[in-house]
Amino acid sequence: MKESEDTVRLDKWLWAARFFKTRVLASEAVTGGKVHLAGNRVKPSRKVKINDCFEIHRGYERYQVIVTDVTDRRGSASSAQNLYRETEGSIERRVVEAEKRKLAMMQRPRSSARPDKKQRRKIRQFNEKL
Question: What is each CA distance from 101 to 27, 61, 104, 118, in whole angstroms?
Fold first, then answer.
């Protein structure tokens, strides 16, 4: 295999592995510090190699993945999952954090409807006093 086929730009790999919907979003995430290699920020042009361990922040989710295959072509979701292996600690942490978010949402009071005109006036009066 040639060297050019053995390595791929990080933004292309993140797009091909379906962590981001577009390559531009992947590039912006890397530039914005959402992707780390061994605790260090990286550039979108960094070459991805097999056995690299990346930490990827996407919204509330934090993935820690090990690269198992390298490609710059975006395929089906099942083929994209073959490009990386998520660590056990990462899976456990994501499950726990998702459960915490779910419990937090259940504890928040939810109104059955939007406030009517009288209630909105009371809310404005209350906010003006603060």
Answer: 28, 11, 5, 33
Query: What CATH number does the domain located at 3-99 have?
Result: 3.10.290.10
**Chain segment 1-10, per-residue pLDDT in tens:** 444 457 899 9
**Predicted local distance difference test score (pLDDT) of residue 44:** 94
Burial category of 11 from C-beta neighbours within 10 Å (exposed 0-12, middle 13-18, buried 19 and up):
buried
Instruction: Judge residue 35's burial from the number of C-beta atoms within 10 Å of its C-beta, 0-12 exposed, 13-18 middle, 19 or more buried.
Output: buried
Residue showing tokens 């072509």: 73
SS3 letters for 38-97?
CCEECCCCCEECCCCEEEEEECCEEEEEEECCCCCCCCCHHHHHCCEEECHHHHHHHHHH
Distance CA 61, CA 114 (A): 31
Q: Does the pTM of the predicted model rise above 0.85?
A: no
What integer pLDDT is reported at residue 106 of this predicted model? Answer: 85
- Which residue type sits at 41? R
Token code pair at residue 62: 């934090």
Question: What are the sequence ranges of the domains in the chain?
Answer: 3-99
Question: Which residue type sits at 55?
Answer: E
